[in-house]
Amino acid sequence: MTVGPLTVTDLVVEFVHDGYAIRPLDGLSFQARAGELVVLLGPSGCGKTTLLSCLGGILTPTSGTIRLGDLDVTAMKGGKLDEYRREEIGFVFQAFNLIPSLNARENIAVPLILTGRDRKESFARADALLEQVGLSERGHHRPSKLSGGQQQRVAVARGLGHDPPLLLADEPTANLDHIQAEAIIRLLQGLRDDGRMIVVSTHDARLVPIADRIVHMVPPDQHEERPTRDVTFAAGESIFEQGEPADLIYVVKSGEVDVIRILADGGEEQLNRLGPDQYFGELGPFLGFPRSASVRAHTDVVLTAYSPRVFREKVLHKH
Amino acid sequence: MILLTFRDLVYRKVRFVVVTLLGAVVFALLFVMTGLVNQFNLEPFDTVGVIGADAWVVPEGISGPFTAMSAGPIEAVDLVAAETKAPAVASRSSLVVDDKADEVILIGHEVGGLGSPDTVEGRAAETSGELVADRSADLEIGEEVTLGGTPFTVVGETENTTLLAGIPVVFVTLPDAQELVFRTDQVISAVLVDGEVDSIPPGAKVMTADEVAEDVLEPLDGAIASIDLVRVLLWIVAGIIIGAVVYLSALDRQRDFAVLKAVGASNSSLLGSLAIQAVLVAFFAVALAAVLQIFLASMFPLEVRVPPRAFWQLPTLAVVVALAAGVAGMRKVLRSDPSEAFSGAGA
Fold first, then answer.
1. pLDDT for residue B185
2. pLDDT at position A318, please?
3. Contacts with B267 from chain A: Cβ below 8 Å
């Protein structure tokens, strides 16, 4: 179980939803090495799961490359991708996703059998993995008879079934209390120490201290305090574009702005026209989402730009 | 794959038991319908076979001795050139037992001659006033009955001697039959011949035993076609039942399939699991139906004779129907996206 470095370069994933394009990943790049625990940190909806899907060969990115050692994952198709998932990748899903009709032991063994491994060997491997995750005594229990933490440990064991060099875990502690989460974190640490590369998506800060590498899915400085100031734009000038990281919130002092949705086919749909004392661009900074629309000056405008905290205190509370 | 399938069947056992029971009822009805059609088809051949003639010489212009009024002079017997021959009377009549009248088919035969039936109990009619009846008439040997207004005593029983969907055949001596039907001993319905017929009198025709039997089937064409239509409808119902359960199973297991696909399981292995489920439901339903049909058949007023071939044809067809009906569910599996494994929150 050795693996070359993981190199993600300029990764872009674009979806078309209700006629307009959204980019959960827009030019993401990072590197990781074997034996590292990589934490993808960011709020819900920032593209963590999308990135895991791309790394796992489940989703083909719009552009950019993913290389795992000598393998160009983004160039693979069909059977090659199946083989890549079978040989190189272990998955741990947020929702555990254990098969309810199978007991813990079978949940680990059946995927191995279905991917062509010997039945006896598969069960022997399942027994060994259950011991590794501390659940030897619970092997014959169905998921419904296991706690959330135990289910997640079985899910980790399933992910390790074929001894993959790269383990992808999606919010592995999201549904667990702190005691169960601690057990999972300890388990991931142990697996990392065995020389495996682990990529974990999370918004759980408890994982940060044990990370060897943190990939901020939302630029970390976007919520940094900035002084309130007036800015001016000439008619037709762009204030911000759809898909850009959201940082400031604007209040129109004078003039008018157009709020425009950029459609997947390149067309534009005007959503609103705002005038003096009206504000825009507040949801992105508050929720950590990229801009959901573009805003352009309809006339020459003067805007007041606020950081989210100041906007909340001085504008929202005043209203 | 087998383990996955078996465990899922156990996990959703209530649903599968209910569907198997429903399927078994439908398949049992199919067995019974098949048995009815088979009985309708075999019945005239069996009865004509019991009468024993290779050919029947009847007046020209009639469809057959059991479907039209057949009458000719007794002299016709002498004009038929054949090694073994005998006069016979065939007609419908009315059998009264305990004041209850039932329709029967009357056969009059020479004592000990061609047309005299092999009995399964008692003996054939030998003198006037004696009668042999098919078992379905439910008569006891020695019982006194009235046939066409004339008293008779039951002396024997035959089996598999019914016509026109279960009407029992009764056998009496030729003179009794002539008296009952024609009120004269100078008229007969047909000349029965065993072996080759060398010549026949003018105005007569020869019908082979098979032709006589096929002629008796014709009035039942509409009934048989109706039963065949019901059979087709039952197959559709069976297909819908199995297809629905396979589709529901595919819906329920969509996340499971997505997870298994995500870890590299092939479409074929997952399809196999669903297909085996469909086949198992069909198989268990047919097996249960094979037993259930015995009870259902006993409730029918007609004999239900399920042909042995039905016990392998029906399961085979059921498996084909199950697989065809499961296509919608299987398409669901093919379309399940491994990225769905990432969606949703846990327990």
1. 93
2. 62
3. none
